[in-house]
């Protein structure tokens, strides 16, 4: 099922479109994802709706079976990519876990802004995007996932999240479908 409606006070959450993440090999070209996210950001800003830009600057300390790579990150690894055209009114969230809500001000900030629905996009679909969307759903937000404005490091996890997980926690739609709904609600 595609996205059916957007609440009058919706926000866009862009997950981890930062220099270090966008430079990784992905299942779908990161440049295409960035173009779609930029369209969404421009549309949300044009309608006076909040845009949240999330970057990751660390990881949760717990043990995992899958070894996390230990590497020296470039000094600009966590910097947002310039193509996002960050604006003064955009809200920046720096996370240190998979999801953008854990130990950040995001929930309180969105609720103070009267936001009832979030549109989530970014990299990686099955990691930061999915975790953030799950957290938003659990906190009571209506969730929409812009499926052509995200990608993963591998194709299988990307497809699994879109086809099996996202329909359980929200609605999915393309960038154009979401923008069309924004235009109709104006």
UniProtKB/TrEMBL annotation:
Keyword presence, Hydrolase: yes
Annotated SUPFAM superfamilies: Isochorismatase-like hydrolases
A Pfam family assignment: Isochorismatase
Domain Isochorismatase-like span(s) in chain numbering: 10-177
Keywords annotated in UniProt: Hydrolase
Gene3D superfamilies according to UniProt: Isochorismatase-like
GO molecular function (one): hydrolase activity
UniProt keyword Hydrolase present: yes
Top-level taxonomic group: Bacteria
InterPro entries in the record: Isochorismatase-like_dom (IPR000868), Isochorismatase-like_hydrls (IPR050272), Isochorismatase-like_sf (IPR036380)
The protein, known as: Isochorismatase family protein
Source organism of the structure: Ancylobacter mangrovi
Lineage: Bacteria, Pseudomonadati, Pseudomonadota, Alphaproteobacteria, Hyphomicrobiales
């Amino acid at each position: 099922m595609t996205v059916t409606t957007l609440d009058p006070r919706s926000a866009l959450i862009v997950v981890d479109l930062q220099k270090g993440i966008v430079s990784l090999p992905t299942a779908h070209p990161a440049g295409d994802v960035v173009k779609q996210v930029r369209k969404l950001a421009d549309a949300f800003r044009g309608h006076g709706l909040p845009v949240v830009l999330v970057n990751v600057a660390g990881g949760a300390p717990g043990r995992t079976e899958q070894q996390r790579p230990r590497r020296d990150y470039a000094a600009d690894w966590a910097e947002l990519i310039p193509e996002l055209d960050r604006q003064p009114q955009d809200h920046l969230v720096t996370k240190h876990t998979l999801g953008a809500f854990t130990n950040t001000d995001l929930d309180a900030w969105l609720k103070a802004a009267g936001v009832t629905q979030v549109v989530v996009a970014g990299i990686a679909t099955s990691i930061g995007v999915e975790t953030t969307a799950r957290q938003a759903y659990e906190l009571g937000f209506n969730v929409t996932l812009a499926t052509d404005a995200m990608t993963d490091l591998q194709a299988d996890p990307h497809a699994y999240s879109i086809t099996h997980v996202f329909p359980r926690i929200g609605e999915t739609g393309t960038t154009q479908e979401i923008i069309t709904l924004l235009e109709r609600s104006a």
